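cron nightly-structures :: item 1 of 1
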Amino acid sequence: LGQSLYLREICGREEGVPPPVDLVHERRTGELVRGLIASGEVTACHDLADGGLLVAVAEMALAGNRGVSLTIARPGASNLHARLFGESQGRYLVAVPPTRLTALVQRAGRAGVLARVIGTTGGDRLTVGEGQSISLADLLELNQAWLPNYMADAAEAP
């Protein structure tokens, strides 16, 4: 989480080493994702470098007006925040039709790229694990209120 938005905005700290950059991995992953998009196998895609997985999921859910249910292994694990908000490079969230999941994971494996199924889309809520949920309407309201609230706070600052 070093130098991440999560660390800065939620924890109020700017510290640590940012994630390392592996240009070989970046290229391999980028070429795979670009190929999936070009072939029409991906219906939506977002990088995870600016805010991490949960930010990308929220932005995609709002943009598509489609709920998401994330399956997070061991939700009580100490590294949950790192898994949800880590900004390591060369990671992408892709949405694909369920019928294409197996083929996509196999194609990624042949390309030397790790791919995992982390959830499903549908409904009108963003759900993480078991029970942690927010409606898309509430999420949209929070998202749209951010800038006016920020500006109001800035105007009140000495």
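cron nightly-structures :: done
The chain has a mean pLDDT of 88.
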